[in-house]
Amino acid sequence: MEQLIHYFETIPSLHRSAILVGGLTFFWLLEGSLPLFKFGYNKWKHALPNLFFTFTTILINFALAFLLLNTADWVGVHNFGILNWLPEMPLWLYITLGVLLMDFVGAYLPHYTEHKVPPLWMVHLVHHSDHKVDTTTANRHHPLESLIRYVFTLAGVFIIGAPIGIVMLYQSISLVATQFSHANIKLPKKLDYLLSFVLVSPDMHKIHHHYQLPYTDANYGNIFSIWDRLLGTYIYMDRERIVYGVDTFPNETENSSLKHLLKQPFQGYRRPTTDTVDKAL
Questions:
Q1: SS3 for 59?
Q2: Rounded mean pLDDT, 180-197
Q3: Which whole number is the average pLDDT over 118-147?
Q4: 141 burial via Cβ count (<10 Å: 0-12, 13-18, 19+)
Q5: DSSP class of 65
Q6: What angle do CA 199, 69, 101 make, to 5 degrees?
Q7: 186: exposed, middle or buried (C-beta count within 10 Å: 0-12, 13-18, 19+)?
Q8: I want to staple 136 with a disulfide (CB 3.0 to 4.6 A). Which of 47, 96, 170, 265 is the partner?
Q9: What is the phi-psi region of residue 57: left when phi exceeds 0, alpha when psi lies from -120 to 50, beta otherwise?
Q10: What does the alpha-carbon distance between residue 255 and residue 267 come to, in Å, rounded to a whole number?
């Protein structure tokens, strides 16, 4: 475990890029053999705006990396944050708890907040307005949202007292987990359901991309499904019923245009409609 943390403390940028590209390539290929939905689309044309937003997210994270490093150093030097206030524990437990807490403060909370605050929802809308969700959708975030998420990540490091090794480990796991949960792949239903008791499975997250409430406002989890189950935001529906997109922004042509997507957060807010709810399992 010490070697693992040491590796992520000093992980080279090349290795982080390899995780991004490797995961994207793996799930892209898997989608071809195990598709959940047969979209019949030009996959590269669909991917282009999503890959553009992936690139802008990388640029923002790279430009602001010094803030993350300085915050992690500060909490360590000043013995600040939840992890530093807890009694001494085995390293494996320390790492697990750190990743769990980063997943809550750095991912679940901002995601929940973006759905509940109309101006933030309009920024997050870019992610939800994809009508053909696949692994490239994972990083389809407007640059403004990348900044918002970064602020929450910084807050997470500060509140949790996470060292940079845990932060980098969390971000690496998060990257692959979101590529997995967005991938257009069809796991056996029972396997997917059992997996969703611990991790955010593909079916569980796809429900979140259904075009109507209350499904859109549920299943916020990033890596671990525990937060949705503990906080009452978990919903189940049969995956055959899923319709991607957002009911109040239904124009697929506009929602596939990079120029339109960049302007999307600045449109007027439109109140969504509500679908019937399946029984939560």
A1: helix
A2: 97
A3: 96
A4: buried
A5: H
A6: 25
A7: middle
A8: 47
A9: alpha
A10: 13
pLDDT given for residue 117 in this prediction: 95
3-state secondary structure of 216: coil
pLDDT at 18: 94
Q: Where are the alpha helices (DSSP H) in 10-108?
A: 13-33, 43-63, 65-77, 82-85, 91-103
Q: Average pLDDT, whole number, for the chain?
A: 94
The 3-state secondary structure of 107-169 reads: HHHHHHHHHHCHHHHHHHHHHHCCCCCCHHHHHCCCHHHHHHHHHHHHHHHHHHCCCHHHHHH
Q: What is the CA radius of gyration of the chain?
A: 19
What are the φ/ψ torsions at residue 10 (nearest 5 degrees)? -125, 20
Residue 15: how many other CB atoms lie within 10 Å: 15
Which residue from 146, 149, 278, 114 is spatially nearest to 204, judged by alpha carbons? Answer: 278
For range 236-252, the mean pLDDT: 94
**CA angle (179 as vertex; 158, 275 as ends), nearest 5:** 95
Tokens of 20: 């991004």
Q: Residue 35: beta bridge partners?
A: 185
Residue 3: predicted pLDDT: 86
Predicted local confidence at residue 281, as pLDDT: 52
Report which residue type is found at 120.
L
Q: Distance of CA 169 to CAs 4, 100, 117, 166, Å?
A: 9, 11, 30, 5
Q: CA 185, CA 208: separation in Å to the nearest integer?
A: 16
Take residue 186 and report the two structure tokens written for it.
Answer: 């069809």
Tell me how far apart the alpha carbons of residues 149 and 76 are, in angstroms, rounded to a whole number. 22
CB atoms < 10 A from the CB of 7, how many? 14
**Residue type at position 221:** G
**Residue 276, pLDDT above cutoff 60:** no
